């Protein structure tokens, strides 16, 4: 069994809970509150910058020239292409650049980005890869799962089409192939660290969407 097959099976129940979140189910039906989605878009745009940085560190640690190019390109795409999608949503949902700039990271976004950044700088290339995989893979799986259930004229169709689209899914398949190739050369201790990193990030994916649905802040703290 490959690493990707094993890690998916270990975390299948967590993925199913993520797919079942009200945020994702209501997004598919087009009934998600627009204020909730606006909150999510702002936080996700903040998240993407940190994710792009972590991908860049991953590229610097990569074992081969091909992997350096793969994750350098991924870092650019995370910031340029997906931020373009968010820019369109910000315009559509009347989110000003000032509102985005002055909105701080929520607890969930801060926790997730801090985990990715710390892992990128402190861990080995295989473990960094594992920590970055859920953001690729879970988004693709959620997009593929809900695209068939999306209602006509869904205000969130662009989001669904992006993550269910062939371009994004091919990128996900490429990352999975890379991590399986890397994992095949790892010892047992490194593999367990990879599993732990993946599961932690997958839990933070669940938390990010759950927190966004409730527009959860820092427990009433002002600053």
UniProtKB/TrEMBL annotation:
Name of this chain's protein: Aminopyrimidine aminohydrolase
Gene Ontology cellular-component terms listed: cytosol
Source taxon at top rank: Bacteria
Functional note: Catalyzes an amino-pyrimidine hydrolysis reaction at the C5' of the pyrimidine moiety of thiamine compounds, a reaction that is part of a thiamine salvage pathway.
Domain Thiaminase-2/PQQC per the UniProt entry, residue ranges: 22-214
Listed pathway(s): Cofactor biosynthesis; thiamine diphosphate biosynthesis
One Gene Ontology term of the molecular function aspect: thiaminase activity
Reactions this protein catalyses: thiamine + H2O = 5-(2-hydroxyethyl)-4-methylthiazole + 4-amino-5-hydroxymethyl-2-methylpyrimidine + H(+); 4-amino-5-aminomethyl-2-methylpyrimidine + H2O = 4-amino-5-hydroxymethyl-2-methylpyrimidine + NH4(+)
GO biological process: thiamine biosynthetic process; thiamine diphosphate biosynthetic process
């Amino acid at each position: 069994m490959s690493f990707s097959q094993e890690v998916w099976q270990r975390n299948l129940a967590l993925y199913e809970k993520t797919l079942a979140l009200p945020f994702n189910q209501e997004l598919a039906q087009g009934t998600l509150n627009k204020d909730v989605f606006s909150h999510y878009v702002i936080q996700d745009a903040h998240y993407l910058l940190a994710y792009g940085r972590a991908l860049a560190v991953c590229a610097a640690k990569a074992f081969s020239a091909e992997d350096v190019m793969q994750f350098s390109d991924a870092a650019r795409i995370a910031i340029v292409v997906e931020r373009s999608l968010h820019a369109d949503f910000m315009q559509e949902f009347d989110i000003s650049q000032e509102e985005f700039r002055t909105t701080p990271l929520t607890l969930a976004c801060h926790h997730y980005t801090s985990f990715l950044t710390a892992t990128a700088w402190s861990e080995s290339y295989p473990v960094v890869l594992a920590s970055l995989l859920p953001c690729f893979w879970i988004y693709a799986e959620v997009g593929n799962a809900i695209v068939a259930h999306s209602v006509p004229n869904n205000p969130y169709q662009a989001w669904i089409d992006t993550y269910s689209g062939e371009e994004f899914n091919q990128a996900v398949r490429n990352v999975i192939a890379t991590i399986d190739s890397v994992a095949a050369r790892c010892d047992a201790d490194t593999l367990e660290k990879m599993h732990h990193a993946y599961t932690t990030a997958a839990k933070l994916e669940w938390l990010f969407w759950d927190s966004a649905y409730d527009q959860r802040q820092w427990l009433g703290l002002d600053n």
